[in-house]
Amino acid sequence: MQLLDTLQASLRELDAQHLRRRRRTTESPCAPHVRVDGRDMLAFCSNDYLGLAAHPAISAALAEGAARYGAGSGASHLISGHSRAHAQLEERLAAMLAPHLEQARALYFCTGYMANLAVLGALAGQDAEIFSESLNHASLIDGARLARARVQIYPHADTQTLTRQLAASRAGTRLIVSDGVFSMDGDIAPLRELLALAERHGAWLVIDDAHGFGVLGEHGHGVLEHAGLRSPHLVLMGTLGKAAGVAGAFVAAHATVIDWLVNRARPYIFSTAAAPAQAHALLASLDLIEGSDGRRRRAHLRTLTQQLQARLGLRQWRHQPTPTAIQPVLLGENAQALHAAAGLERLGLWVPAIRPPTVPAGTARLRVTLSAAHTAADVDRLAAALNQLDSEAGHAP
Ligand SMILES: *Cc1c(COP(=O)(O)O)cnc(C)c1O
Questions:
Q1: Do the Cβ atoms of 308 and 329 come closer than 8 Å?
Q2: Strands across the sheet containing 33-36
Q3: Cα separation of 114 and 143, whole Å?
């Protein structure tokens, strides 16, 4: 069949470029020590930065939520799927973000991908212009496409170019859109400057805090707490399947923005609400994140980050130290990154090789992620393995 022949040829082309993707199957809960495809591995790849994905109190809350509310919501939020558990979660998130927003309200989504499509689709009409950071997550890029607004891309952290683009814009509505913590680089956006620009130009600043929520800030409230920002111009998206350890996402913003999303955001309106049990489990997760347990986990994560930095002595590859749980090691070519990941795998370490289109061509890398569930011994083992493979790469012909 010709259609299948075309796909098979395209897949062979991916193979030739070292871009073919394949999945691993895990047989144990998400944790540093996992059983994957029948083998015990030490993993540095999940976004479970606080080690909450398999926390007994959260798993118990999920079971309790299922006992109380059942397995499924049965409908979208606007029909009959909006439960008490969803409402409680939204109230709790709004209270957490209230120091940073005016008249804060929050809206819970099934996934962060949907939340980003919803925000950009609903806020950016046809007379809008979106100013999008070049390293933004795919869901923000797709959201901008779906919005059918004009899109200007500004280079990574380049607020000067952004300033020029904003000054030249005649659009009725302007949205500056950026990851808070960049997912493949681990660095933090220049949020204070971005917010000043948004306020000066009457623009919204939409921040995707997928990798900051839970991890950054004294109480784990994310990049806004970390940077000490407050403004009516802010719209915050945070995910709840990463540091929060469960699933879903939220948008927090002024009550009017949230009302507008409820009325106009198609990914919110035309999709079945997540299981109420998930929202119930997230209430337990937020208790841990905001409390002394969360503070201890964030402190341990920072210690591990510093330890990795101190132990690594790379000559061929380049570790890019960051203030977050994401610690990329840059190699360059796709084949090099795959070779390095395979070398780590032989040593029992699971670290993903990240290639285009997830990162720009020529910047293939190992994306090391640390978790508060790792021990100092785990991080020593990783550093020793990376040092060894890096020095072997140096001796290759
Ligand atoms: C993971 C991620 C998302 C998508 O969130 P999901 O809940 O996994 O759909 C959005 N933005 C960024 C920056 C992410 O890393």
A1: no
A2: 33-36, 39-43, 349-350
A3: 9
Q: Other CB atoms closer than 10 Å to residue 6's CB: what's the count?
A: 10
Per-residue confidence band for 125, with pLDDT thresholds at 50, 70 and 90: confident
| Contact between 352 and 366 (Cβ < 8 Å) | yes
Could you tell me the distance, in angstroms and rounded to a whole number, from the CA of residue 188 to the centre of ligand 1? 16
In the reported structure, the alpha carbon of residue 210 is separated from the centroid of ligand 1 by a whole-number distance in angstroms of 6
Assess whether 371 carries a catalytic annotation. no
Indicate whether this model's pTM tops 0.90. Answer: yes
Report the atom number in ligand 1 closest to the C-alpha of 182: 13
143 CB under 6 A from ligand 1? no
Q: Crossing angle for the helix pair 191-200 and 159-168, nearest 10 degrees? A: 10
Q: What's the 177 CA to ligand 1 centre distance in angstroms?
A: 14
d(CA 260, CA 268): 11
Centroid of chain to Cα 301: 17
CB-based contact 190:157 (threshold 8 Å)? yes
Which residue's CA lies nearest to atom 14 of ligand 1? 210
- The pLDDT of residue 1 is 83
For 257-307, what is each residue's pLDDT tens digit?
Answer: 999 999 999 999 999 999 999 999 999 999 999 999 999 999 999 999 999
The catalytically annotated residue of 46, 178, 183, 371 is 183
Q: 391 C-alpha to center of ligand 1: Å?
A: 34
The reply to whether 183 belongs to the active site is: yes
Q: In 10 A of CB 3, how many CB atoms? A: 7
The CB density around residue 230, as the number of other CB atoms within 10 Å, is: 13
Q: Which atom of ligand 1 is nearest to the CA of 113?
A: 9
Separation CA 85–CA 106 (nearest Å): 14
Q: How is residue 239 written in tokens?
A: 């995910």
Q: Answer yes or no: 211 catalytic.
A: yes
In 3D space, the residue among 251, 279, 274, 6 whose CA is nearest the CA of residue 121 turns out to be: 251
DSSP code string of 129-195: EEEEETT--HHHHHHHHHHT-EEEEE-TT-HHHHHHHHHH---SEEEEEEESB-TTT--B--HHHHH
